[in-house]
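Supplementary Note 3. Input sequence used for the single-chain structure prediction.
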Amino acid sequence: MTQAANLGALGTNAGTTGILPAAGGGTGTASGVTGFKNRIINGAMGIWQRGTTSTSIGYQTADRWSFYADSSRTVAQSSDVPSGFIYSASLSGTGSTGFTQKIESVNTNGLVGNNITISFYLKQTTGAGANAIALNLYHPTAVDNYNATTQIGSTQNFTTTTGWAQYSATFSSLPSGAANGLQVTIVTNSGSAVVFLLTGVQLEVGSTATSFDYRPYGTELALCQRYFEKSYDTTVAPATNTTTNAVYNYGSTDQYSSLVASVPFRVEKRAAPTMTAYQTGGTSGSWAYGRSGATGTATANFYDTGTTRFTQYMTIGASAYASANCYGHWTASAEL
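The predicted structure, written as discrete structure tokens, is reproduced below.
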């Protein structure tokens, strides 16, 4: 098993075989082994590989979280947090504004028939009040395919305040469709402008919210990289002008006059990812090359991309088997 596969297996089994809450977060067994009780990844908003602010919807900032709002939207990293946390996500928008996470089926197929509790910390600085925030739980109608979903239970509404508070709801006896995956959505009910901060999101087996499952940073990062990885440093957003960690390939062209580079992923992906290339200056879609005293840029083409590595080739106008080099950055997305 790869590191990510081992982590995924722990996450699937935790909470279903007699695991009990341990003091200070995490889970423990009679033997003292720490487990994974939280099926949410990056619930503490600690990993932001794509960047720390965005005005676009979708997967743009905090890893594993997809943002949406009807209009006037912004999501950003914030250090305004409840005790024990480092970061929260600040969400603002007009109309329906929220965050959603889709949980892979390998981490939910043991939840069928169980009661689960979802908890989170939230501070609503604009638009707080009665039934201001809604929590919804869904399952996809096919394994890991969220093109169509079915709601589980009823919408859970919460009366919010302008200070930090923890909220929770229990969903009883999850249906068989939970084996296909789960989608957690935390969204505003208002049609007006709203601002709220979110962190400490947890989905666990049982009918009570327990202490937050803190995981080591490296472990949480590896869990995130199963779905998104990049060549840039963890805290450097894609398309940044930098040569640090760029792929450099020195060799010769193949029989088709193309220069080929094959690069392994640090963490095995959930599925073959969608690849994007970037020049070191930030332009997307191409890499730079050098050959026979000439330099330039060319389209970076990806092929035979799998869950453990990708191969990229560039047609650079050199003769077959000519000395050449190429360099650039990449991102790989296997999000649900």
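Residues 3-13 form the longest helix (11 residues). The radius of gyration is 22 Å.
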